[in-house]
Structures are given as C-alpha cells and as structure tokens.
Q: What sequence folds into this?
C-alpha cells in the first residue's frame, strides 16, 4: 500500500442517551494509503458514518486515535480534508456558480481566480448552462454534482464521502459513479467513501472495509482486484465483478442475517 494518509487505531465511540450508553463502534483499525479509494460497507447502524464523522472531527472519539499524515486529529478538522455529505447540502439562495464558489470565498481567493476555477468545475461536472440556476430548479443528481464540486474546488487532499448517491435512482447513480471515477482519476485524492451499496463499493474502490453489526468492528478488509479505468456499466457484466461480489457478500451477508462468522 502507498504511504498512509489516514491511520485509524483502535477507534471506539459510545453515545449517551439518557441513562443508556450505546456503543456505536469498537476497536476499529485500518489504514488508507495516499491516493487510495477506500469504501466502508456494513449493516445499517454499524457506525460507518460515525467513523467518517470522527475522521472529519465532527464527532469526538471515545477511545483510540486517528492520524492524518502522522498528526493526531483533534477538535478541528485537518486542513487536508474535504467532506461530501449524504444530503446535497447546497444553499437554496445561491446559484450553482455561487454554491460552488463558497469555499474559495471563505479562503479569500481573488475574484478572477474564483471565476476561472468555478468555470472549470462547472465544465467538469457537466453543468454548463446552469451556472445561474438555483437548486430548486435542479434534479437531485445535479444538486449532488454541485455539492461535490464545491468540495473538490478547494483541492482537498483527502475527501470524505458519506453515502452521497444513496438517495438517487440507479441511472443517475451510475452516471455519477462514472463522473466521480473520472474526477478521481484526474485529481487522485485520497477518498474514504461510506455506502450501504456493495455494488457501488466494488465499482469505485481499491479496498473495501466490511463492518460487523453494532457495535461496529472491522470484519474484513478486501482488496478489489478489478483493473482501472472501470466502465461502470460493463463492469457489472464481468465474471471478475461477480466473483468479487460473491466473496465480499459471503462476509457481509452474515451480518445482515445476524449470524457471527
């Protein structure tokens, strides 16, 4: 594996709800290499998003540690990190252009540079002609592209993605898979991608972290052997894809059925 950008060590999180304590994740450890695309899959409630939120400093761990480029993550997010949430989180009062430009404005980037970088982002996302449109007039897939480009335009070295395509129909999701793979291939960020969709994980990732039921622990770390670049449509017709799906499902399916390995 390439040098670790992220090191997750014996990570745990317990939430308190009144008199009850709920252990969300326990003893989670894995690494993410430089320019690697890692997906996290597991049953609902296994702590996938909680792990992502701890990496992004949105939730404090109860135990263990997270290292980004060798530095322990604290209360403030590491500057290398960008985040794409499950909901598109675009601002309804801002146009497509102004939504994408938001992070650059916060960083004090000059107006000419913002215009140039936003124009390139719009082109890459296939949003030409919608620059002045407001989110209410866009499809769900287009809004998610706006949210993705808003994160990518500030050039994060590490991108956290929390089920960003989960609410979309299959056709739109496949189109966005292709676009994400193209963008990742060009920019080569380190990506941690949470999903409940095993097909999505295999299509996108270099490695897949399979979680157990709550409290979530790492059951399996699987190396995806499918070559790149990947055709998101034809890939699913290949024997290699079906074989890898079967191998991972053997471990993941036990968790959905509620059986131990």
A:
């Amino acid at each position: 594996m390439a040098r670790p950008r992220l090191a997750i060590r014996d990570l745990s999180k317990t939430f308190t709800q009144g008199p009850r304590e709920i252990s969300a994740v326990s003893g989670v450890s894995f690494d993410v290499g430089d320019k690697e695309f890692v997906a996290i899959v597991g049953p609902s409630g296994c702590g996938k998003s909680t792990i992502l939120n701890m990496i992004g400093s949105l939730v404090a761990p109860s135990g263990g540690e997270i290292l980004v480029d060798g530095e322990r993550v604290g209360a403030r997010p590491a500057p290398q990190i960008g985040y794409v949430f499950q909901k598109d989180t675009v601002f309804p009062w801002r146009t497509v252009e102004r939504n994408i430009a938001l992070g650059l404005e916060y960083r004090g980037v000059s107006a000419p540079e913002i215009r140039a970088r936003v124009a390139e982002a719009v082109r890459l996302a296939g949003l030409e002609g919608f620059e002045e449109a407001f989110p209410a007039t866009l499809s769900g897939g287009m809004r998610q592209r706006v949210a993705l480009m808003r994160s990518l335009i500030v050039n994060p070295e590490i991108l956290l993605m929390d089920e960003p395509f989960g609410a979309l129909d299959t056709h739109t999701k496949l189109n966005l898979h292709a676009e994400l793979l193209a963008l990742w291939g060009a920019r080569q960020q380190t990506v941690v991608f949470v999903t409940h969709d095993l097909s999505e994980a295999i299509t996108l990732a270099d490695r897949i972290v399979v979680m157990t039921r709550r409290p979530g622990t790492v059951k399996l770390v699987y190396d995806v052997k499918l070559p790149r670049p990947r055709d998101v449509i034809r890939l699913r017709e290949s024997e290699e894809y079906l074989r890898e799906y079967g191998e991972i499902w053997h471990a993941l399916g036990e968790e959905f059925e509620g059986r131990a390995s």
User: Anything to note?
Assistant: Helices lie at 48-55, 96-100, 102-106, 111-124, 140-152, 170-187, 198-204, 239-257.
